[in-house]
């Protein structure tokens, strides 16, 4: 089923704060890079590149890759450009929900903690397939079915309604969506990976920057800190109960 977009496009992120946080995303990124299995001179699209940490880690492993750093947030791209520079990198400000303005077919796609922000995965995979050469691999980590269920319950207890802006897909639906978009699936799996943070101030910054951004967008500034605190206090324990959806697939 193809859904209408619930908003006008991807939102902006507080990239500067995001980049100061110690994130489990860095470990997820290392896992994606381990599974990419590059020769080292490919053109690699980082879909939802954020501040470019994973792309920098890729370049440390493979200095000769050419990167296409794509994100829907200009603030994220600005920090990525500061980190990566312009040599062997092109930057694309684009929405993964729309056909992608990528000039040449890419040899691989990596993506870390981004796909669950894209509301329609059928469209997402079709748009990625359209810019990948035959034989190119897609390796991704994102939130999957059951991801942040405890945080979702905490948000619902504060707001009175469950948040609806994430697509936490399961492995079965993801496999068939990938196949329909033109991929041979190597593996798709769900993996629980809870993140514990015992420092309340750090947890609130983390929740505000990484998890609750779309909720805060709709709140007056003077109510935002209180909202984040209420969500933290509504958690049964100081844990962000991540469940990762991990994908390895090859463009037919
Ligand atoms: C949690 S961040 C992850 C960033 C980076 N991959 C990392 O692991 O640090 C999610 C990223 O996905 C991007 N994003 C979300 N929805 C998007 C969309 N529809 N199109 C393009 N980028 C999107 C956000 O702007 C953000 O940079």
Please characterize this protein's 3D structure:
By secondary structure, the protein is of the alpha/beta class. It has ten helices and nine strands. It has helices at residues 15-20, 25-36, 53-61, 74-84, 121-130, 149-159, 171-181, 200-211, 213-217, 221-234; strands at residues 43-47, 66-71, 89-93, 106-112, 132-143, 183-192, 195-196, 239-240, 243-251. Helix 3 (53-61) links the parallel strand 1 and strand 2 (66-71). Helix 2 runs parallel beside helix 3 and helix 5 packs parallel to helix 7. The longest helix is centred in the C-terminal third of the chain and has 14 residues, at 221-234. It is globular, with a radius of gyration of 18 Å. S-adenosylmethionine binds next to helix 2 and helix 3.
Task: Compile the SSE list and pairings.
Layout: H1 15-20, H2 25-36, E1 43-47, H3 53-61, E2 66-71, H4 74-84, E3 89-93, E4 106-112, H5 121-130, E5 132-143, H6 149-159, H7 171-181, E6 183-192, E7 195-196, H8 200-211, H9 213-217, H10 221-234, E8 239-240, E9 243-251
Parallel strand pairs: 1-2, 1-4, 2-3, 4-5
Antiparallel strand pairs: 5-9, 6-9, 7-8
Helix pairs in contact: 2-3, 5-7, 6-10, 8-10
The structure holds S-adenosylmethionine.
S-adenosylmethionine (SAM) is lined by residues 10, 13, 25, 29, 48-50, 53-54, 71-73, 76, 95-97, 112-114, 117-118, 210.
Give the CATH superfamily of the domain at 15-147 and 165-196 and 242-251: Vaccinia Virus protein VP39
The CATH topology of the domain at 15-147 and 165-196 and 242-251: Rossmann fold
Query: Biggest sheet, strands in spatial order?
Result: 3-2-1-4-5-9-6
Helix content: 40-55%
**Rg from Cα:** 18 Å
| Spans of at least 5 consecutive residues with low confidence | 1-6
Bound molecules: S-adenosylmethionine
Q: Please name the CATH architecture of the domain at 15-147 and 165-196 and 242-251.
A: 3-Layer(aba) Sandwich
Q: So what's the CATH class of the domain at 15-147 and 165-196 and 242-251? A: Alpha Beta
Largest sheet: 7 strands, mixed
